[in-house]
Amino acid sequence: MAKPTLTLNGKPVEFEPGQTILEVALNNGVEIPTLCYLKDATPTGACRVCLVEVKGARTLVASCAMPAGPGMEVTTDSQAVHTSRRLNIELLLASGNHNCLTCEANGRCKLQALAYKYGITDIRFKGQTQQYATEDENPLIVRDFSRCILCGRCVQACNDVQVNRAIGYGYRGAASKIVTTGDRPYHHSDCVFCGQCLEACPVGALVEKKAKGQGRSYELKQVRTTCPYCGVGCQMLLHVKGDRIVKVTAAQGPANKGRLCVKGRFGYDFVHSPERLTTPLIKEDGQFREASWDEALGLVAKKFKEIKKEHGAGAIAGLSSARTTNEENYLFQKLFRAGIGTNNVDHCARL
Ligand code: SF4
Ligand code: SF4
Ligand code: SF4
Description:
- 24% of the residues lie in helices and 19% in strands.
- The chain is α+β, with helices and mostly antiparallel strands.
- The protein folds into 3 domains: 5-77, Roll (Ubiquitin-like (UB roll)), CATH 3.10.20.740; 126-272, Alpha-Beta Plaits (2-Layer Sandwich), CATH 3.30.70; 281-350, no CATH class.
- The strands form 6 sheets. A 5-stranded mixed sheet has the order 2-1-5-3-4, sandwiched between helices.
- A hairpin with an 8-residue loop joins strand 10 and strand 11 (235-241).
- The longest helix is centred in the C-terminal third of the chain and has 19 residues, at 293-311.
- It starts with a strand and ends with a strand.
- Residues 98-100, 103, 105-106, 109, 111-112, 147, 203-204 line the site of one iron/sulfur cluster.
C-alpha cells in the first residue's frame, strides 16, 4: 500500500502513520530545533521551540507532539516560525540565571546554542521565577534550579526511559519546579542515582558533581568502551582530559540503549585510585611483595598441583567474576573442569 504523503517546505515526502511532524522532518534531513524532545519518550511540547507552520492551523504547532497527517502543508522555517522560536528562547533565558561564564554546561548547552543561532544578545524581559536554592548535598548530582528551563526531559528520562518514577513536576506557575516525592533532596528520595536525568538535561541545571571544574566539554576527548562492572555489556563514553576520566555518559548499545546504572556512570574512581593493584603481589612471611605475572601464575599453578596431589581435584574451587566477559567466564570454567578436573565452579552474579 502506498505510504501517505505531506508537503514539507514545498516538497512532497512520505511518512509512516503515527509519526510526528518532527520525526518526518528528521527522516528527511530537515532540522527543527528542540529542547524538550527526548527520543522514544512521550512528547510533552513543553519548550515550544520546535514550532512549525501547518497550513490551515489557527496557530503555530509544536512539531514534536503533532502527528503527521496526509496532505498537510508544513513550513519549518518561515518568518513567523523564526520570530516565535526566538521569543520562546528569550523567555526561557529570562526565566532563570543564565550566566554562561560560570556554568558547567557552557559549550554543550542546547539553550546557549539556540540563543547563538537565533542571534539573541539582549533579554528584553525580566524573569519572575521562584529562586530555589541549589541542591548540592549528595556526592553525585548537583541540581541548580536557577538554570532549569522546566523542559521535563529529566522527568521523561526517569519515568519513561529508566522507569524509576522518582521525579515529576511540582508547584504551579512561576513557582514550578522538578521535584521528588515530597520535594525531598535526591538522597532522601526514591532516586537510585542512575544519572539518566543528568544525561537528559539540555542545560546546566543538572551537573555531575565530580566533573565540576574538571574541564569544558570541548576540552574532553570521548572514548567509547564497555562498562566493566557486570556482564550486561552497557556501552559508554569516557570523557577524558589528559589521562584522567572526567565523567562517563551512556552510548547507544544493543544491551543498554543509551542507559547506564549508578555503577557504570559514577563508579569510575577506581581507575585512578592510588590503591589500585597494578602488579601481582605474593605474600611471604606475612608481607606482600611485588612479582611478575610469570612468577605469580607459576606459583598458583604449583600450589594447584600440590593441593590436587594431596587432597584431590575436589579440594579446589573457582569463583569467577561478573566483571569478566562471557568468553572469559567460559574459559575459566573450562580451565577448572578440563584442566584441573573439578566441577566446583561458581560465579558471583549467582549469589
Ligand atoms: S544553562 Fe546554558 S544558557 Fe544557561 S548559563 Fe548554562 S550554558 Fe548558559
Ligand atoms: S538519578 Fe535516576 S532515579 Fe534519580 S532522579 Fe535521576 S533519573 Fe531518576
Ligand atoms: S532539570 Fe534539566 S532536564 Fe529537568 S526540567 Fe530542568 S532543564 Fe529540563
